[in-house]
TrEMBL record:
Keywords: Membrane, Transmembrane, Transmembrane helix. This is Integral membrane protein. The chain crosses the membrane at residues 6-25, 46-70, 82-101. It comes from the Bacteria. Residues 128-141 have a biased composition (Basic and acidic residues). Residues 119-171 are annotated as: Disordered.
Amino acid sequence: MSTDSYVAFLVVGILMAVIDGQIIYRSGSGYLDQEGNDPEAASAMTVLITALFHLAVLGALALISTIHFPGGDALPGIMGRLGVYLLTLAVAHAITLGVLARRREERVVEDWNTRTAMVNGTGVVPDPRARESEVDAELREPTTTPVPGQEGRLPKVSPNLEHRGPYSTGQ
């Protein structure tokens, strides 16, 4: 690959990485700060995630620029490199969105636990294992209102209406 095409490929790749990184930064900052509780923490986390994105994508650009593609200096060779780089950029973008979504999920759960603790008046975040007994009690309750005389979570099937007897199993 000639120096001109090599430099053009690198400039286009860097521009694409910077533009995508800015999109991630601006959108991610708003996405993490949607609750509005701690804007500095959301901004700091977005900066860290965006920096990691830039490092990974620019590293991939440097590696792809050294790979030999059929077509060499011609337009097909440059387009092949650019296509591989775009696919790499898309994968990196998707991974970054997953990281942002996971961080937001964790933050929502933390906020919910804090609000629950404040509502309970204890000021202490409840232990998730303490709630298991409540959940187990709910699971033992019937899913439907049983017919009188039928106890338990799964009531028996009502009798066949046509023959006034239990359902047959087809045997």
